[in-house]
Amino acid sequence: QLQLQESGPGLVKPSETLSLTCTVSGDSVSSSSYSWGWIRQPPGKGLEWIGNIYSSGSTYYNASLKSRVTISVDTSKSQFSLNLSSVTAADTAVYYCARPRGKPSLFDFWGQGILVTVSS
Amino acid sequence: DIVMTQSPDSLAVSLGERATINCKSSQSVLYSSNNKSYLAWYQQKPGQPPKLLIYWASTRESGVPDRFSGSGSGTDFTLTISSLHTEDVAVYYCQQYYSTPVTFGQGTRLEIK
After folding, report:
1. If DSSP codes are grouped into helix, strand and coil, which group holds residue A25?
2. Which of B52, B101, B106 has its CB closest to that of A108?
3. Dihedral sign for Cα atoms in the order B60, B63, B64, B67
4. What pLDDT, in 10s, does the model give residues A26-56?
5. Are B76 and B20 in contact (CB under 8 A)?
6. CA–CA separation, A110 vs A85, rounded Å?
């Protein structure tokens, strides 16, 4: 049974970097054809795709965030990570890690999400 | 970017009655080579992540009750719950995965009347 669990700071200061990790269990984060992704949801609002990473080494990011986003995989820890730099209050959201299906992708399995607040 | 617009924003339906949610894309999400519309529906209950219900506009994900159905093609889509159950109270989102960035509708809140 696949499980995805987000972790990281719940509070980040403006202009700093938001760093989150998703721990994968029940599946291999580095299987021959893996794909993993991040989506966020500001409080009381809709869903915004952030980006995906694929076993080919390719990453795909939302152009609206591309200059600030990095997604990477740490196979030794069965984790994948999100870094979002130069955050502002507009980056306050629940961040979900998820398993993409296809390319472009829908998302067939989601973590429970983690609320990250950007505030001084 | 493809803009996804759902209607209505909120909906109240009596238990056992039909609920219908609409989703319109700003451009076609139908891929002519395979005749598939790249449209998915999700259900999000309070405090939970979204759950995939429907993909290819009309294919139910494994384990999803058959009272949920999707229809439509091209730019206009519908999610129908044939007989509303208490546990169906949620926000429903459509999503296009035809092109990057994938985009979601603003959500439709479904409540019991």
Report:
1. strand
2. B52
3. positive
4. 876 666 678 999 999 999 999 999 999 988 8
5. no
6. 23
